[in-house]
Design brief:
alpha+beta; Pnp Oxidase, Chain A; 2 domains; ten-stranded antiparallel β-sheet; five-stranded mixed β-sheet; 13 helices; 22 strands; binds flavin mononucleotide
């Protein structure tokens, strides 16, 4: 189908009936609370939620939540057909799409719609945007949640885009929380170690494919602009940022240009996080770098795109599970693991803590190889915890099936491997606040034991042939009303 920018995307999503418009809500806790209820209570797929007439803001200044929380919206975003039989079918389609992805570099335009309005000097005011105060225990309003943060490698020159939360400290200052090992954090450390300031761009309401790419673990030095262009099948339009000189997304709703200074920290958070907790330091604030805003560009009637982490399944956990499953699957194949049949990064673990890989076991050691690698490839390495490897008759996205395999085919004494001192984060809720450096991984081989897999006990269930026959004869009588 294709779409030009967020507004065009939204129009198409409205066309297939997936936009819920809500007028008159308050940015202070109401928007966040409503969003959580809608996500939890949704009978079918979660709609994109567009808040307008937000208390204290002119009509037209909007906030958009749950952008990517349906298969159709995700498919539109990455330029795939909109309909699928089951979840794994869509994961497979996404995996096949990214298998041979060739990046499409951004195209530079002279000026994009984001430059319709410019704030400079005393006119800079972040409070002109309806940044939500998401949860009751949060420490402030968040401008940046479903956004991108652009930084440049100081020596190599390439740009990284990551989604790293930005809290509003004041009308021209934002907090910037980037956890260890993220590419933006490595950039930041490189500047600060040399005592140099770091220029930074924060953009909200960007092309949904660009947000998807920025929030995903794309390899080091690969441009998320190019990756997003490849997902869409057409280049992302950029223009030169007037303050930073960076290529900024030309069709974004809002672009903030600014600078962080080494040694300058301000208390940030707390903020409810993706694993479902205030895991950073509980309800304490934590000192983080500050972005001094030098210029803001924005479209007329801007849309602030937002994401709300909380106890999963939450507002964006669905899309994270699908995208990460595709990425891990892709990296497993590229690392040489044959015959991967499916990957599911479960929403309960915020798409990171609980990963299931299904394989057709080809050789002794295949299951261990798949499990160990799934826990360490780039898209699976950060704050992982459990990886379960199952046979191909198990649908990794079917929790009942997975638990059945775990309970019946694994044997703790032979099936479990532990990896120690792995890549963790302040967001890991299983670690005490003063020991957030490393975590461990548990790889569970829940496949039929390789040595006697062909003699493994027969499954006690009706054959597909008999089932089909019975359904043909009895289907109407037994399925109606059951
Ligand atoms: C809604 C949302 C919010 C996120 N917030 C943060 C954050 O505050 N800090 C962080 O380090 N990563 C955060 N992430 C995860 C990163 O965006 C993700 O790890 C991404 O791969 C980082 O980019 P990089 O791989 O270029 O470092 C968030 C992801 C999403 C989807």
């Amino acid at each position: 189908m294709g779409y030009a920018d967020l507004r065009d995307w939204l129009k198409q999503v409205e066309g297939f009936g997936e936009v819920l418009r809500l007028n008159g809500a308050d940015w202070n806790l109401e928007i966040g609370g409503l969003c959580e209820i809608i996500v939890r209570e949704a009978k079918k797929s979660v709609p994109a939620i567009l808040f307008d007439d937000i208390r204290g803001y002119p009509k037209g200044t909007r906030a958009l939540f749950a952008m990517l929380s349906s298969v159709k919206r995700l498919a539109l975003t990455v330029n795939l057909p909109l309909e699928y039989g089951g979840m794994m079918d869509f994961v497979r389609a996404f995996h096949e799409k990214i298998r041979d992805l060739q990046v499409i570099p951004p195209v530079t335009v002279k000026q994009g719609p984001v430059a319709e309005n410019v704030m400079e000097g005393d006119r800079i005011d972040l409070y002109r945007f309806p940044s939500p105060f998401h949860h009751e225990k949060d420490g402030g309003r968040y401008f940046g949640t479903a956004h991108v943060v652009l930084t440049q490698h100081p020596d190599e020159g390439w740009y990284n885009l990551g989604t790293y939360r930005c809290m509003v400290h004041g009308k021209d200052t934002l907090g910037l929380h980037i956890t260890g090992g993220k590419h933006g954090r490595i950039h930041r450390d490189l500047y600060f170690e040399r005592g140099q300031p770091m220029k930074v761009v924060v953009a909200a309401g960007v092309d949904p494919a660009l947000y998807l790419a920025a929030a995903s673990e794309i390899p080091w030095s690969v441009s998320e602009y190019g990756y997003a262009g490849a997902l869409k099948g057409e280049p992302i339009a950029v223009m030169t940022g007037p303050y930073t000189g960076f290529p900024i997304p030309a069709t974004a709703e809002i672009v903030v240009e600014g600078e962080c200074y080494p040694g300058e920290l301000q208390d940030e958070g707390p903020f409810g996080e993706w694993a479902g907790y205030y895991a950073n330091r509980g309800l304490e604030k934590v000192p983080e770098p500050v972005i001094h805003v030098k210029r803001i560009l924005h479209r007329t009637d801007p849309i602030l795109t937002c994401a709300q982490p909380s106890r999963p399944p939450h507002e964006y956990s669905f899309y994270r599970s699908i995208v990460r499953s595709g990425l891990v699957w892709d990296e497993l194949e590229k690392a040489g693991v044959p015959d991967v049949k499916g990957v599911w990064c479960h929403e309960a673990g915020g798409s990171r803590l609980f990963t299931i890989v299904s394989i057709h076991q080809r050789y002794a050691g295949h299951a261990r190889q798949a499990g160990l690698l799934a826990s360490q490839v780039h898209s699976g390495a950060y704050v992982g915890r459990y990886v379960i490897v199952v046979d191909e008759d198990i649908d990794p996205s079917n929790t009942q099936d997975v638990l059945w395999a775990l309970a019946t085919r694994s044997e703790p004494e032979r099936s479990v491997e532990i990896i120690r001192r792995a890549w963790s984060s302040s967001a890991d809720p299983a670690l005490p606040v003063d020991q957030k450096l490393f975590n461990s991984r548990c790889i569970i081989d829940a496949c039929k034991p390789y040595e006697w897999k062909d003699k493994f006990y027969p499954v006690a269930e009706t054959s597909p042939e008999l089932r089909a026959e019975l359904l043909k004869k009895w289907g109407d009588k037994i399925l109606n009303g059951v």
